[in-house]
Specification:
The chain has 314 residues and is an alpha/beta fold. The chain has one domain: TIM Barrel (Alpha-Beta Barrel). Helix content is 44%, strand content 14%. Strand 5, helix 7 and strand 6 form a beta-alpha-beta unit. Helix 2 packs antiparallel against helix 11. The chain is globular, with a radius of gyration of 18 Å. 49% of the residues are buried. The structure holds coenzyme A and zinc ion.
């Protein structure tokens, strides 16, 4: 699609809700997805195919997926930790499966209870499973690398390890690679080093970035990744988020602020900023106890603000 310059992907319904103890009613999740799609967000990670015993928030994963798939033009994605998750997604006809493994050995063991090599082998099996589907029922498969920029168990993660696992997932058949700063350790210089190294190895395979704003470096990291040529970013409305299996994890970068920054830079996202800000009300009403971030929501749009599209047309 060339009417947008950067793809922004909402992950709040997955990353934002997985750490939240209160169940968000299914109808509110659907209202959030519908409103955000109507605001112009084209890709939403709507849920996670993990055992509901482990994360009860996703007990309604099947219903949420089915209803999201009914929204025209929306790319519906979901997180998977293993083949069982992939099978659930395939049965539903989800558009994209976001497989997750960690570059940190310790976090991979805590999060998905596997050695990293076992996760890579799982991923290869999942790719086979996906490729065996009839055309038209074949989702895209993203290879996600958590804790790629730091780990709250291990600290710094060697760049060579990120490159190694990115390459293994690419060789196994990933349609795209996602590099994630799960616990918000990264800074722009590190982002440049890691993304440049990974991109040099995976060639033209699409790459996306997933940042958390735990230490206030989130949007600066987006700027650094943009400089490297990254054109797909995860974010969550109002900055919800965090991994329940990583100590000290907090929210993703704020979707509303990300969209404003990109648009302000002249990069079209397809998102209507005013409409996006209104979606926050759905979240606030459904989860009054959740902490919501957002500079744009606090400060409002600049006077006489012209959207990237309008400036381009002028
Ligand atoms: N969806 C639903 N059920 C699943 C499942 C999935 N994706 N994967 C496994 N199960 C079920 C199995 O069928 C089995 O059920 P049973 O007890 O009724 O027989 C049970 O869960 C245990 O299966 P097992 O393969 O032994 O899994 P595990 O207990 O070793 O857990 C993971 C491994 C990967 C499923 C689990 O660690 C996980 O979901 N981790 C992801 C955590 C997460 O979401 N982190 C935040 C996002 S980064
Ligand atoms: Zn995350």
């Amino acid at each position: 699609m060339n009417d947008i310059d950067v793809t922004v992907r909402e992950v709040g319904l997955r990353d934002g809700l997985q750490i939240h103890p209160t169940f968000m009613p299914t109808e509110s999740k659907i209202a959030w997805i519908e409103a955000e799609a109507a605001a112009g967000v084209r890709e939403i990670e709507v849920t996670s195919y993990v055992p509901p015993k482990l994360i009860p928030q996703f007990v309604d994963a099947e219903e949420v997926t089915r209803r999201a798939l009914a929204i025209p033009g929306l790319t519906v994605t979901a997180l998977i930790p293993n083949s069982k998750g992939a099978e659930r997604g395939l049965a539903l006809g989800v558009h994209k499966l976001n497989f997750v493994m960690s570059v940190s050995k310790t976090h991979n063991l805590k999060n998905v209870r596997r050695e990293r090599e076992e996760s890579v082998a799982d991923f290869a099996r999942i790719v086979e499973l996906v490729r065996a589907q009839p055309e038209g029922r074949r989702p895209r498969i993203a290879g996600g690398l958590s804790t790629a920029l730091g780990c709250s168990f291990e600290g710094r993660i060697p760049v060579a390890d990120v490159v190694k696992y990115a390459l293994l997932l690419a060789e196994a058949g990933a349609d795209e690679i996602m590099v994630a700063d799960t616990v918000g350790y990264a800074d722009p210089a590190q982002v440049r080093a890691v993304f440049k190294a990974v991109m040099a190895e995976i060639g033209s395979l699409p790459i996306g970035a997933h940042f958390h704003d735990t230490r206030g470096t989130g949007l600066a990291n987006v700027g650094a990744a943009l400089d490297c040529g990254v054109r797909a970013f995860d974010a969550s409305l109002a900055g919800l988020g965090g991994c329940p299996f990583a100590p000290g994890a907090t929210g993703n970068i704020v979707m509303d602020d990300l969209c404003f920054m990109l648009d302000s830079m002249g990069l079209r996202t397809g998102v209507d900023l005013e409409k996006l800000l209104e979606v926050r009300r759905i979240v606030r009403e459904a989860l009054p106890d959740i902490e919501m971030q957002g500079a744009l929501a606090r400060a409002g749009l600049p006077r006489n603000y012209l959207r990237a599209e309008e400036r381009r047309a002028a």
